[in-house]
From TrEMBL, chains A, B:
It is found in: Cytoplasm. NCBIfam families: fghA_ester_D. Pfam families: Esterase. Belongs to the esterase D family. It comes from Humicola insolens (Soft-rot fungus). Its main location: cytoplasm. The keyword NAD does not apply. It is an enzyme of class 3 (hydrolase). InterPro entries: AB_hydrolase_fold, Esterase-like, S-formylglutathione_hydrol. The keyword Cell inner membrane does not apply. Its EC number is 3.1.2.12. This is S-formylglutathione hydrolase.
Length: 293, 293
């Protein structure tokens, strides 16, 4: 189904389109922001551009990173589009949906829920990898600026870093590269992940492992990972053991999987101050694997 | 009086300090953010750096531009500190202080109020040009990173653009350069300015003119202005006649004042998307006049 354009905002020579579309996967309208760089919108020499998908963290909507992440600054120089999906369905009005900041609304964890009542529409995994990508590339108005052949990369922050890593690992070849800011790297072993997976997937921890980057990397057969991860050492959630990037590193090493770079940054926290500081590196990482650098 | 450090946040290789200090001018605690670039904080080769003051617009606090303006990205490369003051006293609890978004709280308009009850503490002009600058340069903890001899530049957005322009014009020599994003350029002739000036300064419109960039530029005797102004042509407030940058341009031209560059940008609005896009240019403008470029 086509996008409705809610607003259009000039940003770094390109344009950010605030969109909405009716999702058959979530059964709700879904908000999504699409940034098109100046190269795509050139009136004289328009170029079809590749796409970077940015998955947001807990409590966020497409707006936060569009305004505070600074990815557009570098994407506008390289000619890369950015897609900012939402973090859950909104409007299902399920019991308890809004009672936690780390479960339910804005906390979809990029899985397809199998438990009632969440299985009604909390299917963010299928929404992202199937419906949303097909919708944006197939859209009559916006698809013409994009080139699926050039490829799609994925990145994300915190819960969205978990989403980026797991969707990259679960769907080999769908994304040309992955990166993550402060990702929840081993959710089966942290409180956020355990709460979300129990709620969305039930008690069977074998099911949880199918959505855990550290578990998935053990079975990875796709060659070099093409993965960049940044973590701040002053990140309170890192210190609480919610992120566990060392477990991901260890699992990759044990499995003989190459191509995972994890950088630890003194003094940096979990906020958009952290994301914005390193956003150019993540755009460059994607651009390199999309043939732009 | 010394600053209390509320928090310290790593950003673009430097640090943002969220500070508070008791102001004798406003009679309240005042929040202020200070960004120190990596050059100032180098453990091996620290350099005392010049300062750019950023004045925020209506409804804003020191937080908005610190997080969304991206001035730090460029300032960190050049070695420039940035000071983000608040937009009004907070905590006076004056009658009607919170009843408008464009007058009172977060709407101090960078003037010293002469009418009751606002004259009690709404003295943002004196606060910025005297107390705050003296406090930051004289501070035992933070002053040592700054070099007042290298100079201070000023910039701002909307109401803060009005503040930057008028304080630059009223205090020749205090600031080495001025720039503004979508400034209220001729407040005596726009609804925002008329409401604020009537409220803070009373009925005498001759008093209003002392705080109007367009009026002040007519009497400017300080040589070339060293002023950069950016305006978005999709800015709703520009289209409503709240900004009136053409009046500033016309007055400068009629007065034979050189050195004012006003740029109009198709499609850009009044938001931080606009500010962030052009922030590097404004940092460069300040850096040039502070001897960094």
């Amino acid at each position: 189904m086509a996008f409705t354009t809610k607003s259009t905002i000039a940003s770094f020579g390109g344009k950010l389109f605030k969109l909405s579309h009716p999702s058959t996967t979530t059964t709700t309208p879904m908000a999504v922001n699409l940034y098109l760089p100046p190269q795509a919108l050139s009136p004289t020499n328009p170029q079809r551009v590749p796409l970077l998908v940015y998955l947001s963290g807990l409590t966020c909507s497409p707006e936060n990173c569009s305004e505070k992440g600074f990815l557009q600054a570098r994407a506008s120089q390289l000619g890369l589009a950015i897609l900012y999906p939402d973090t859950s369905p909104r409007g299902l009005d399920l019991p308890g949906e809004a009672s936690s900041w780390d479960f339910g609304l804005a906390a979809g964890f990029y899985v397809d829920a199998t438990t009632e009542p969440w299985s009604k529409g909390y299917k963010m995994e299928s929404y992202i990898v199937k419906e949303l990508l097909d919708t944006v590339f197939g859209d009559a108005e916006y698809g013409k600026y994009l080139d699926r052949e050039k490829g799609v990369a994925i990145t994300g922050h915190s819960m969205g870093g978990h989403g980026a890593l797991t969707l990259y690992l679960k769907y080999p070849g769908l994304f040309k590269s992955v990166s993550a800011f402060a990702p929840i790297s081993n959710p089966v072993n942290c409180p956020w992940g355990q709460k979300a997976f129990k709620g969305y997937l039930g008690e069977d921890q074998e099911e949880w492992k199918k959505h855990d980057a550290t578990e998935l990397v053990r079975g990875w057969k796709g060659g070099d990972l093409k993965a960049l991860v940044d973590v701040g050492l002053a990140d309170g959630f890192y210190k609480q053991g919610q992120l566990l990037p060392e477990n991901l590193e260890k699992a990759a090493k044990e499995a003989g999987v190459e191509g995972l770079t994890v950088r630890y940054h003194e003094d940096y926290d979990h906020s958009y101050y952290f994301i914005s500081t390193f956003s150019a590196d993540h755009v460059d990482h994607a651009a390199k694997h999309l043939g732009l650098l």
